[in-house]
Structures are given as structure tokens and as C-alpha cells.
Prior knowledge:
Strand order of the largest sheet: 2-1-3-4-5
Shape: elongated
Oligomer: single chain
Largest sheet: 5 strands, mixed
Amino acid sequence: MTVNLSKNREALVAAWQEVLDDKSDTDWALFGYEGQTNDLKVVGTGNGGITELNDDLNSGKIMYAFVRVQDQKTSLAKNILINWQGEGAPVLRKGVCANHTRDVANLLKGAHLTINARLEDDVDEERILHKLSLVGSAYSFKEPRGVEEPQRGPVGTTYTRVIPAKEINVAERDNFWRREEEEEKKRVEVERERKRLEMLKVEEERRQREEREHTEREKRIISSEGKSPPTSPAAEAASLIASKSSQPMESPVRTQTNAEQMRQQRNQEARELIGSRVGQAKAIFSQNTTNVPVTKASAPVKPARNSLAQRINSLNQPQDDTDNLPSNGQTVPPNPHGFEAEEEQFSTIKRSPHTKSVEQTPVEEVKPLPEASPVEVPKEDPVEGIPTEAGLRAVALYDYQAADETEINFDPGDVITHIDRIDEGWWQGLSPDGSYGLFPANYVQLLEDN
């Protein structure tokens, strides 16, 4: 239900205007309801300010107050509308009168601040003045309006006329883009140089790491064996050649005959040494082979090598071969039947990719001394089992670094000759640098001219 303002309208308006009049001493007016009706009436007026108004407020009723106070900052009169809802007022009455506040505010116009109060502390004069100072402006009408401003000149402009010929300067534009292009080229060169230096640094670190690992690996191998590395067959043959070549020369015919005999003898000794080492390597493979199939992936995988390396290294240790060497001036004829029997024995060996053979170094054929007179020397039949020509050849598909002295190194594109397929996973052959040893079979591809 709405509030009834028409019944006592004249009294309400008169009390309100009296508070608004600065010449009147009345500075507050209190309004309330007639009994339990919604008819609004004037309860009382006074000139004692908020303190006097606080004594007339009833904690059990719903009332409205319109008060005039003086702002301490501006020294101006400010009007305050107080919506009083006593703490002891009925709850139902509070709910009904809550909708009357807007109608009362439309009647009592001119309020600078509206306060909702339920207790006497909410109508404290200091608290109300503090709230009023927060909503008001900080100025005073009693002070002078300000100093006189100096006389100002005419207002200028920053407009500049646009000259198309000057703005569209083709030469300047070309110079700009030329400078940009040069700067971009310099930036690209600096970036390329930086990448090159980084690649060199990485390559140097990799090389140093490989050398360090190789040195450590050799030290471990030497320390595990407890003695110096074995002498290769090529070194033994070379020492024999050097010792025999130091003998004095005799007459031309005899010298030629002795030289030819010595050459045949040295070749025979070298073939026997290499053949014995090849036989030992194949014998080891025949004792340790298994029927494990080899699965080839897209990228080559190095075949596994068992603890057989220790046994192979033991075979590479220096041996007393003086018993196998013939005396000076005598030649030992080759035994083809022995090699044929050995080859038949190896043909039944099962292949395995998990073993590896002993490193072998090809023996360089020693050129005969210059002939003093034409002497026919019968040619010696080649011994079976020793590659005298290039034999099987293969081209390297990937880079491979030897793990120990029994293997060889090669780069992609290198051609490996004198290949002996002693096992399905591991072959041995002659690398371009002259070393003879083992290498993984899946790292190379046989040439078609084989």
C-alpha cells in the first residue's frame, strides 16, 4: 500500500519549506504516520540541530526527518533526509513502509544526502557531518575567486602544407630500401658465420671426444692384456725383409737367383702367417656360431660381438714363429691339399653375426732387385685361401669407426677390396688406407662387377 501524502499535504510542505529557508531558525522537521494508517503527518520541528532531533526519534516507529546543517568545508547549508526505522518497530510494518521512501523523497526535495538509520548511533552528529564532507566539494565561497590570468596571444596552428613532389621522393625511397637490403645481407652473413663457427666448435669437440675415447680404449685394452700390443703379420714380414735385404750382393746371375729365391721365400712366409691367422679366426667362429637370424633395419645396426674378443686378442699376442720359418736358401712348397681340406671343413660352419675375427694386414709384395741378366725364373703357383687379387669388392654405405685394432675404418663411398666373408654378420677386407681387418657386413654393399 502506498503512503497518503494528500491528507496533511499543506502541513508537510510548510514544515519542509521552513527548514529550507535560510532566514528561518527552524533547522529540522520530523514526520510520522497516524496510528497504523499510511497517512503521513508532521510530528514536530525545532532549531536545536541533530542533537535535538535525536531525542524525538522513537525506536518503535517508522519516521522521516529533514535536517539543515552547515558544511564545515564550504560553510554552506546542506540538507539531509533521514529514513528512521526503529529497531523495535514491527517487521511487517517495516516491509510495508520500505516502499514509501521514494514517495517521501519526491515530496521533500532538495536533500544533499539520504541516511538510513535504525539506532541512535546512526544519527550521531559527527558521523553525519563526516559523511556529508565526503560527498561535498572542497571549496569555499568566502575566499577570492582567484588571480587574474595574463593576456593570451592568438592561438597558432601546427598545420603544414603537403607538397606531393617532396613527399613522393623516388630517390629517397630507393635509398631507404637499399639500406634495408644491405642491412639484411649483413645480418644474414653474420648469422651464417655464427652457424659456421658453431659447427666448427661442435666438430672440434666431437673430434677431441673421439680421440679421447680412442686413447682410453687403447689404454684399457693394453691394461687388460697386461703386455704390449701384438705385432701384426705385415710387421713381421717387413722385419724379415729388412733383415734379409741388408745382406751384401754377389754376382749378377747369382744375385738375381738369390733375390728371386728370397722373394719367393718371403712371400711364402707371409702367406703362411696370414693363412694361419685366418684359420685361427675361422676356427674361433666355428666354435662360437649360433643359428640367430639377422634382421636388417632401415638404419644399419652393428652386429653384436661376444666376449670372443678376449680370445681373439690372445691369438694376436706375439708367438714364436721361428719354427715355422724355413732356413735361408730353402723354399717350402705349398700344400694345396691341406688348404682344400681346410676349405671343406669351413664350408660346414654355421654363420653367426655375434663373433669377429682377428685383424689381418695385407703383405705388400716386395719388388725384385734389378736384373743383371735375363734369367727365367719359374712362376710360383698361388696358394689357395690367400687373396692375391682384389677379389670381392664392396662400397661403404655408412661411416664406421673401428672399436679396436682388429677392425678397420672407412667413410661412405670408400671401396673395400679383398673381402673374405668369414661370417654372415662380420666380414674382413682391405680398406683404402691399407689396413686389413673386420667390419660389419650390413654397412657395405657388394659391387656388381664381382
